[in-house]
Amino acid sequence: MKEEKKVTMDKILNLCKNRGFVFPGSDIYGGFANTWDFGPIGVELKNNVKRAWWKRFVQESKDTFGVDAAILMNPKVWEASGHVASFGDPKMDCKNCKQRFRADTLIENHSKGSVAAEAMTNEEMEKYIDENNIKCPHCGVKNWTQIRKFNPMFITSRGTLESDADKVYLRPETCQGEYVNFLNIQRSMRAKVPFAIAQIGKSFRNEITPGNFLFRTVEFEQMELQNFCTEETSMDIYSDYKAQALNFVTDLGLAPDHLRYHDHDKLAHYAKAACDIQYLFPIGWQELNGIHHRGIWDLSRHQEYSGKSMLYTDPVTNEKFLPNIIEYSIGADRLVLALLCEAYDEEVLDENDTRVVMHFLPAIAPFKVAVLPLQKKLSDKAREVYALLSKEFMTDYDEVGSIGKRYRREDEIGTPFCVTIDFDTMEDDTVTLRDRDTMQQIRLPISELVSYIQERIKF
Ligand code: GAP
Fold this sequence. Notes:
This protein is an alpha+beta fold. Helices cover 33% and strands 26% of the residues. It is globular and about 75 Å long. The two termini are 25 Å apart.
């Protein structure tokens, strides 16, 4: 369990900063709240996670089509989606230090995820905060304003004038780019219902809550999948997406006992069902992803606001209807955070020796292999091996420090295999290959390295 591994958000954050996973955004200017930059190790990890998602949900799914839609959309999209009128978080200000917080997040953090604040009215949230004496996390004083709504969409302007007519929004979710392309994709790909549209891309929300590192950021990537289906098949597809979403994250390495379904009690007026998968982060149980049965809301609204018919004609019965939508949405950054927490381990080797090791699934590990010459005079041969391996995999190369310290550095970034070049290599073209998790070493011919590693990093 997590507690035994002593994972804390601070430990993960320090490791990330020191080992090149993630740095504070605009670091030399003192940072910029709730923004983070992925470093050389982190960008590999995140790319591998996105690739794994795309492989599972697009490549291996015959009826799913990918898109990469524009971030800036016609502002009418956000009127149709309801974001301009009613997208909003329940915010409270601390009258003492003037910091702003989301009331639902205050409750969820205080209860370590055991209270579902999203099901509460504003009055119920205010009462809970009062009765449970929840204080400002910033100054420790309890002196709250009432709850008010805050629209977290970022506004910018197009062209040279900053008038209302030129106002555009940074998208707060990627899925609208999938809805507005429903007709294009259905026509150009000759897609038949049920089919799905998938997208990975940046979203932006003016989050006012302390972010807890990558958990809640103002700029983040979403991996979203929208299935367009008949009403009759919609509940089966919804259940199937719930199962597939859980399988995906367990296949990536999250432990089943750190995951649970959380069915929503309170639904949006158009929704037929909604469920989160929660993960046991060091800050408690929190949403990792959502699966939503959105009914015909999205297509009917875009039909109304664009004036374009979104009706689908059944090729067999000729019946015309608006498809239902089942959505599966997961944040790439939030998933990376969960995978970092899950992989982190402090392994006691003996009384005086503990190693920090990231047990990533090899398929998502930033580097698949590291090449380490035992001594610098072996570096010519080591560079030859590096050239061979780096054609196939992200390969690290390190010739600085003792071999023990170099193994530890690779353990901390989760490299599954280390290849050591020694004096025997010069004689017989074999190397030592060390396994990150077992620390066992085997001897292998250089000619077998690529296939050995390839076999073990499949997803
Ligand atoms: N299209 C539906 C939608 O956007 P959501 O529950 O608001 O639904 C889906 O977001 C997922 O996006 C969340 O489960 C989470 O993984 C991720 N996410 C949302 N807001 C985020 C934020 N501020 N920072 C990081 N990830 C976020």
